[in-house]
Amino acid sequence: MLLLIELIVNGKKYKLDINPRKRLLDIIREDLQLTGTKEGCSEGECGACTVIMNNKAVNSCMIMAVQARGKEIITVEGLEKNGELSELQKAFINKGAVQCGFCTSGMLMSCKALLMKNQNPTEEEIKRAIEGNLCRCTGYNKIVEAVLEASVMLQKEV
Ligand code: FES
Ligand code: FES
């Protein structure tokens, strides 16, 4: 039996008939073809699948379809506006915080969720925000530097 769910993804409303055993990650990647969100461990440990659901960073591999009903989701595809990368994405590039890139979309979403509630985070707060996101390449420092740079740019915008 299919389950009808409505949800908003990157500002767009969707009504979908889906297999209730699907996870939010499957809906995003398969039904909506938003493949920027990655699947790593599939068990809530690596953070590669992180998206923002109702303003909070969540592991989309651990959210069942029914839990996503009526929710507002932001994926990495929702970060750029009118074809221009967000300040956070630009800062990741400037600081060399992207290497193999597998963790990057999840990392960006955890950092974005932090900046949505705190535009001026400390290093400690950034480290805490990304503690559920594993990165094998960067050593994390460049990511922390990128978030600090983005926070400066965001405050200039206000
Ligand atoms: S794939 Fe979801 S946390 Fe690893
Ligand atoms: S850039 Fe390769 S895992 Fe993070």
TrEMBL record:
<dbReference type="InterPro" id="IPR036884">
    <property type="entry name" value="2Fe-2S-bd_dom_sf"/>
</dbReference>
<dbReference type="GO" id="GO:0051537">
    <property type="term" value="F:2 iron, 2 sulfur cluster binding"/>
</dbReference>
<dbReference type="Pfam" id="PF00111">
    <property type="entry name" value="Fer2"/>
</dbReference>
<keyword id="KW-0408">Iron</keyword>
<dbReference type="InterPro" id="IPR001041">
    <property type="entry name" value="2Fe-2S_ferredoxin-type"/>
</dbReference>
<keyword id="KW-0001">2Fe-2S</keyword>
<dbReference type="Pfam" id="PF01799">
    <property type="entry name" value="Fer2_2"/>
</dbReference>
<dbReference type="InterPro" id="IPR006058">
    <property type="entry name" value="2Fe2S_fd_BS"/>
</dbReference>
<keyword id="KW-0411">Iron-sulfur</keyword>
<dbReference type="InterPro" id="IPR002888">
    <property type="entry name" value="2Fe-2S-bd"/>
</dbReference>
<dbReference type="InterPro" id="IPR012675">
    <property type="entry name" value="Beta-grasp_dom_sf"/>
</dbReference>
<keyword id="KW-0479">Metal-binding</keyword>
<dbReference type="InterPro" id="IPR051452">
    <property type="entry name" value="Diverse_Oxidoreductases"/>
</dbReference>
<dbReference type="GO" id="GO:0046872">
    <property type="term" value="F:metal ion binding"/>
</dbReference>
<dbReference type="GO" id="GO:0050138">
    <property type="term" value="F:nicotinate dehydrogenase activity"/>
</dbReference>
<dbReference type="InterPro" id="IPR036010">
    <property type="entry name" value="2Fe-2S_ferredoxin-like_sf"/>
</dbReference>
<comment type="pathway">
    <text>Alkaloid degradation; nicotine degradation.</text>
</comment>
<keyword id="KW-0560">Oxidoreductase</keyword>
<feature type="domain" description="2Fe-2S ferredoxin-type">
    <location>
        <begin position="3"/>
        <end position="79"/>
    </location>
</feature>
<protein>
    <submittedName>
        <fullName>Nicotinate dehydrogenase small FeS subunit</fullName>
        <ecNumber>1.17.1.5</ecNumber>
    </submittedName>
</protein>
